[in-house]
Amino acid sequence: MKKYLLFFTTFLLLWSCSKDYDPVLQTEWMERESGFQQKYELEELVVLSRHNIRTPMVGKGSVLTRLTDPAYQWHQWTEPASHLTDKGERLEARMGTFFREWLSKKSFLDDYTANKSTFRFYANAKQRCQLTARTFADALFPGEKPEVEMKVTFDTMDPVFNPQITKLPEGFADKAQKEIAARFGDINKHIAAQYAVLENVIGLKNAPAYPDTTSFSQFPSSVGFKLNAEPYMTGGLKMACSVSDALVLQYYEEPDAKKAAFGHDFTDTDWVNASLVKEWYGEILFTAPSVAVNVAHPLLQTMLSELQQKGRVFSFLCGHDSNIASVLASLEVEEYDLPRTIEKKTPIGAKVVVEKFKAADGTEYADLWMVYASTSQLRNESALSYGEPPVAVRLRLSGLPENADHLYRLSDVEQRFSKAIAAYDAL
Hints:
Elements: H1 2-9, H2 11-18, H3 27-30, H4 36-39, E1 40-50, H5 63-67, H6 86-105, H7 108-114, E2 119-123, H8 127-140, H9 172-184, H10 192-201, E3 222-224, E4 232-234, H11 236-253, H12 257-260, H13 268-286, H14 289-295, H15 297-308, E5 314-319, H16 321-330, E6 351-359, E7 364-372, H17 375-380, E8 391-394, E9 408-409, H18 410-425
Parallel strand pairs: 1-5, 2-5
Antiparallel strand pairs: 1-6, 3-4, 6-7, 7-8, 7-9
Helix pairs in contact: 2-13, 6-8, 10-13, 11-13, 14-16, 15-18
């Protein structure tokens, strides 16, 4: 627990260094060092994406109204709650355009022209996921209108992307609770400083909920499990997460940073603190080992199938931050820092990119990256290109050996997927 909490709190120190992050370093992901191209051929990409900017999950007249000083006005969204915004759609188009530029250099787009089954686009049926995938696909192949698969009724949850508990044997809840306690400790205690940032920025002391609600910390937070439902939380962190989520989305959408913070002079560190609340919420709910392999099971199966699908060169799977969190936890990805973003675990619109390579001797290798637009690129709607690429951070799989070029054997990565899938079967 101490190791995890130390890493979590040092995000704030790392942020000050990340502002000087050099975009040129991204060539390590796009092209690698000299000689790499002669040693390895890129065969396939499997991309697990989070949807792009959406409206808050809660709408007008919600808990946000009760917790906020009446003098402060939340952003007036034109789209329904939890829907992809127009800005989110434009930003995803920029990301798709960047991938088009990159993949055209790899001659991947020629494969689509020859056989459209070499590319797959599949998204959860929620509007924000379907539209994200549709926008990305159209930017990747302008005018082609690639199929975006939807397996269930529109705006419902596809079981592949639904982070629900599908096995609840006797003893599971107790084991999961012990894992959460060991990893995170007292849920409210370790996020108290971030609570204070939120309480101040929304003017909680002047809100309708005060004095019944004086602090998020006054309500103990706990996690529970039900069969065929997402892990759920009660208490202060659940309330604070709604505020954190809405505030971060407001910051992305509102050009005036001071207005986004209700007139406060928020620093970069303040925005990271505000965002950490919702990320703490997601980590607690979805990354404990037993929970992660439970909720990620169908998606792990799908990703492994795509990696092994003969003839496939590109797969785009679009879901949620909970999907990325649970998949990475199931694969035992080491802790990572994401520079140039206020969201330190799964930035909005982020993509986990699994690359598959073949060496000259026929051996297959894999590499994993988190690719995302920086906070500045999101707020400013920056064009993404080789000159101004998205940020890319290599993801390391705990305990797996890598070769001199920092690649894993594909068989080892596939075994890691199989291990997580087997862990579900053993629950």
